[in-house]
Design a protein that fits this description.
CATH class of the largest domain: Mainly Alpha
GO molecular function, one term: ribosomal large subunit binding
Oligomer: single chain
Number of strands: 6
Pfam family, one: RRF
Main location: cytoplasm
Strand content: 15-25%
Protein name: Ribosome-recycling factor
Distance between the termini: 51 Å
Family: Belongs to the RRF family.
Helix content: 55-70%
CATH topology of the largest domain: Topoisomerase I, Chain A, domain 4
Radius of gyration: 22 Å
Number of domains: 2
Length: 186
């Protein structure tokens, strides 16, 4: 593996860590509704478990209500049960073919708990990014040891990997701050 490949690989994996962190942030519920909130809920569809988005149309009815419209008539009750049984704390209500999923208001205490969860998730993402930096640095040192790269190239590359790491950690910090502001706004 060359120096360029090591740096590209580290950048790619760090970006994947950011994407995974963003995905985990979407699961943390703010007071507002979001169709992505139901992405983790799976429904029994003829023996196989599928995400709701694959058996129904998920849309926003208003800022605090998600609408779910099943594509098949018999799926309404199953979707409603899956949402109710999920760990999201939602209580769906059927109106004909449409399932309304109102977002309950959150207490101040619950908001503070969720900010702690967001910060913890942010720390996990930072640790993952730092581990990737360590792995890349070890690979660079191995290249020098195997005499496939010079020590100057190694130092330069380690500096570049550090700059990349700093950039991704700054991105994590910005995401955490944004999510905490979302949570604390009433």
């Amino acid at each position: 593996m060359s120096i360029i490949e090591i740096k590209q690989n580290a950048d790619l994996k760090m970006q994947q860590s950011i994407d995974a962190f963003k995905n985990s942030l979407t699961k943390i519920r703010t007071g507002r509704a979001s169709p992505g909130l139901l992405d983790t809920v799976h429904v029994d569809y003829y023996g196989s478990m599928l995400p709701i988005s694959q058996v129904a149309n998920v849309s926003m009815l208003d800022s605090r209500t998600i609408g779910v419209t099943p594509w098949e008539k018999g799926m309404g009750a199953k979707i409603e049960k899956a949402i109710r049984d999920s760990d999201l704390g939602l209580n769906p209500a059927s109106q004909g073919e449409l399932i309304r999923v109102p977002m309950p208001a959150m207490s101040e205490e619950r908001r503070k708990e969720l900010t702690k969860v967001v910060r913890a998730e942010g720390e996990h993402a930072k640790v993952a990014i730092r581990n990737l930096r360590r792995d890349a640095n070890e690979q660079l040192k191995k290249l020098v040891k195997d005499k496939l790269a010079s020590e100057d190239d190694e130092r330069r590359s380690i500096d570049e990997v550090q700059k990349s790491t700093d950039r991704f950690i700054t991105d994590v910090d910005k995401l955490v701050v944004g999510k905490v502001q979302d949570l604390m706004s009433v």
